[in-house]
Design goal:
Blueprint: H1 7-16, E1 19-24, E2 31-34, E3 49-52, E4 56-60, E5 63-66, E6 71-73, E7 76-80, E8 101-102
Antiparallel strand pairs: 1-2, 1-8, 2-5, 3-6, 4-5, 4-7
Length: 108
């Protein structure tokens, strides 16, 4: 990997952290999750993807995030989640709000 560690190590480092939603932006429901292990800090991609699927788990700079719906994006992708993070039909469309704690679990 670009980080100089194995895929298994990246997954372990990302899954071991407890994240806090610091703020939301970029797109509706896109939560910036602080608490990313320093060993996973990466600059954004030099060439953004034109399509990142909803549920993509990603890292960039000092943050982790989950793309709440399909959009372009310049973050490094780690995997996906099946959790719906944006649903305009709910009273509270964004599942993640500032101050919430988030933990990822590795799944196969």
């Amino acid at each position: 990997t670009t980080l100089g560690c194995s895929v298994a190590e990246v997954i372990q480092l990302h899954s071991n952290a407890v994240y806090v939603v610091e703020f939301c932006g970029f797109a509706p429901g896109f939560a910036y999750l602080g608490g990313l292990d320093q060993r996973l800090h990466l600059s954004r991609r030099t060439s953004p993807r034109t399509r990142v699927p909803a549920g993509a788990v990603a890292i960039a700079s000092t943050y982790s995030a989950v793309y709440p719906r399909e959009s372009p994006g310049g973050w490094h992708l780690l995997g996906t989640t099946t959790m719906t993070l944006w649903d305009a039909t709910r009273d509270q469309p964004a599942r993640l709000q500032p101050g919430m704690r988030v933990r990822f679990r590795a799944m196969s």
